[in-house]
Amino acid sequence: MSWSSRRRTIYFGLFAMFLLGIFYSSFYSFFYKPPTCFDGKQNQTEQGVDCGFPCSSVCSFQTMEPVVLWSRVFKLTNDVYNAMALVENANSEAEAFGVPYSFKVYDDKNVLIYERIGKVDLLANSTVPIFERTIVTGERTPQRTFFEFSEEIKWEKAIKEQPDLFVKNKELSYDNGKPRLNVTIENQTLKSFNNIEITAIVFDKEGNAINVSQTIINSLPKSSSEDVVFTWSEPFVSEPGRTTIIPLVK
Description:
CATH class of the largest domain: Mainly Beta
Low-confidence stretches: none
Helix content: 10-25%
Order of helices and strands: HEEEEEEEEEEEEE
Keywords: Membrane, Transmembrane, Transmembrane helix
CATH architecture of the largest domain: Sandwich
Mean pLDDT: 87
Strand content: over 45%
Largest sheet: 4 strands, antiparallel
Number of domains: 3
Distance between the termini: 84 Å
Number of strands: 13
Number of helices: 1
Transmembrane segments: 12-32
């Protein structure tokens, strides 16, 4: 083979390799999809399907289910009640937002009086009160409650922390037989907070919740405090033993 023939062969081979490279690159970029945390597959270094590092979702087998400590109704007046469920998320590194729930109240004949479909945030290592206010029952008497989460909880890595708000100066008194609870909420941090939900739970001497109330502090500036008053229109059903105040920044 002459030199000119060999040169043409070399040029042709190089050109063919160039075309093959373009074809392979186009084929690869068209059909190859890099792994993500939303592709429905366990890849990368995930510990499960789209969960575990490097994804923000936490695998369900790495978490504990939230515990409903109790749920019940509390009488306000003759036919008006409040209801509350107290839920504990014991996961120190996992939180969930917008978790759907169902809260039902039944009468003494096991007939549904009230149902609320809502959503709640479960921050890491927190106890969350879920409060339903002013349930009008008419002539029916609430007998029991039923609270449940209606969907599988999707846990995320915990990044949001509740601020350290201190509860001070709790004082339970009576005004013409009507209970009144005064407390002070203190913000010792260097950050201001808005929309703080304050829940009061009154327990009897056996540790049973006998009434609840809830209010909102619209704004609590840094290094400040706010006095909060809870009142009830009727006496408690039994003698109170202790009170618990739960502040949550919404």
